[in-house]
Amino acid sequence: MTKRISFFDTTLRDGEQSPGCSMNHREKLMMARQLEKLGVDVIEAGFAAASPGDFESVKAIADHISESTVAVLARTVKEDIDKAWEAVKGASKPRIHTFIATSPIHMEYKLKMTPQQVADRAEEMVAYAASLCSQVEFSAEDATRSDTDFLAEIFDRVIMAGAKIINIPDTVGYTTPDEFYEFIMDIRKKSKYLDNVQISVHCHNDLGLGVANSLAAIKAGATQIECTVNGIGERAGNAALEEIAMVLSVRGDKYGANSNINTQEITRTSNMLSSITGVNVQPNKAIVGANAFAHESGIHQHGVLSNRETYEIMTPESVGLSKNNLVLGKHSGRHAFKDKVISLGYQIDDDQLNIIFAQFKDLADKKKQIFDRDIEILLTRGIKETRDYYKLERFVVNSGNTITTTASVVLDTPEGIREGISFAQGPVDASFKAIEQCVHKDITLEDFSLQSITEGTDALGYAVVKLRYKDKHFVGRDASIDVVQASISAYINAVNKLMQEEETQEAMAV
Ligand code: KIV
Ligand code: ZN
Question: Which ligand is nearest to the CA of 169?
Fold first, then answer.
């Protein structure tokens, strides 16, 4: 009999914690809608107790998503669980996901608790969560470095207390497929009640085994897989959703399993995440890399032309990759543009459409061919959530290989119009220094990246700037055909996010 595997997507929680992948409220909601379209069973929307911003995002997702279950993470701490429930209770299918570490090293050095105290706390807090919410998931953090007798005992206690889903995370990406299979079978043998509830796994990718370990777990009886789009997540990331989904689609017979994932939404979901975060996948990444369906060598091309199956185990269409994505030009009207926006999976209202359509027309004047990826960039960066505390008025850069680069940047700031003038080795460096003169704050530039979105010399340049201010990180992004302008705007976007955060903190302190 074929078993149905539930996909628990944690892109918006575990994924969002990874460097450079932070998303704002609007971006998280946009991703959640796309995840629902993709057919994920559970969307982990965030960690509500982490910050007021996280709380609001979880709440908004809970209020807008109707098909997928919306999960929220909480430590086994009453205040966390109260916040989690407050944020998720409006969902049509809410779930509280609570966790505590169970490995000797985590219990002794991180929690400073005995195994007995950990088991008591887990049981008590699961019972409390179950008194609020009918679906409670319990995770034993660092399970794969925990003792299986202890895990069986704690799982039995939390199941009796009301947990309906038991998650076995490989938190540090340490296990291997054979070992994980035996490990889960061993716990199942030792536990009285584990087979009465859903078994879930959550595999990190430190040794590159996240997907393989998840598949071994399916063989050992797991029916829920926790994963992220593009495999983003802490350190080397989490098991990649698209890879597991395509294994089940192409080789489901090997696992006696299938899923509810609409694989044709995979490319769109992956692109949306890259556009939002500015973090692209490597070209040779399975399923969603730019080369995943490219056949460069003559022998391969010849084979594929004669019969696609010579070198193709799945079609590009099966993951929603359309070759013909050259889209609109400067003569395209608002109607055609709106159809394109909808076909790309975005939901925007008429006012937003007008803003993005104007930006599209502006871009079409400068760029010969506009691709889906260009439109996705306009859509994800077009409607900014942050207020424009600082706005670019104009800039001039003078650069060449025999002169020192100079930049003048004029900003409209909360204190009025300001101009910064600076010298440096290159145009971006000089521009950033000029902006710093206009923004009197002790900001450190932590990271900067620039990449082209499509091919051609008139491609959009996508800039991502990461700033540190008072031990917090702020990531700004923007795109333009002019790469210096994209860089300046991304820097200003990060400063505006910082200003917004300061304003929110001040308002909360009053
Ligand atoms: O990696 C991990 O152990 C986690 C848990 C909170 C599930 O993310
Ligand atoms: Zn994790």
Answer: 1
Give the number of whichever ligand sits closest to the CA of residue 99: 1
CA 485 to chain centroid? 26
Q: Name the CATH topology of 391-509.
A: Double Stranded RNA Binding Domain (3.30.160)
Distance between Cα 97 and ligand 1 center (Å): 10
Cβ-based neighbours of 437, under 8 Å, separated by 6 or more: 418, 420, 421, 422
Give me the CATH code for the 3-277 domain, please: 3.20.20.70
Residues contacting ligand 1 via CB (< 6 Å): 14, 99, 139, 141, 167, 169, 171, 202, 204
Q: How many angstroms does the Cα of residue 510 sit away from the middle of ligand 2?
A: 35
Taking CA atoms only, the protein residue closest to ligand 1 atom 8 is 14
Other beta carbons within 10 angstroms of residue 431's beta carbon come to: 26
pLDDT band at 297 (very low <50, low <70, confident <90, very high): low
Q: By the 8 A CB rule, do 461 and 451 touch? A: yes
Residue with CA nearest ligand 1 atom 2? 171
Report the run of H or E that residue 52 belongs to, with start and end.
helix 52-64
Backbone angles phi, psi at 66, to 5 degrees: -115, -30
Please choose, from the candidates 192, 400, 423, the residue with its C-alpha nearest in 3D space to the C-alpha of residue 409.
Answer: 423
CATH 3.20.20.70 domain residues, the chain: 3-277
Return the best residue to mutate from 99, 199, 225, 238 for the ligand 1 pocket (most ligand atoms within 8 A of CB): 99
pLDDT digits (tens, 9 = 90+) for 27-79: 899 999 999 999 999 999 999 999 998 999 999 999 999 999 999 999 999 99
292: tokens are 């995943």
Name the pTM for this structure: 0.86
180-221 residue pLDDT tens = 999 999 999 999 999 999 999 999 999 999 999 999 999 999
Cα of 173 to ligand 2 centre, how many Å?
9
Cα distance between residue 395 and residue 408, in whole Å: 6
Tell me, in angstroms, the distance from the centre of ligand 2 to residue 10's CA: 8
Residues of the chain with CATH 3.30.160.270: 391-509
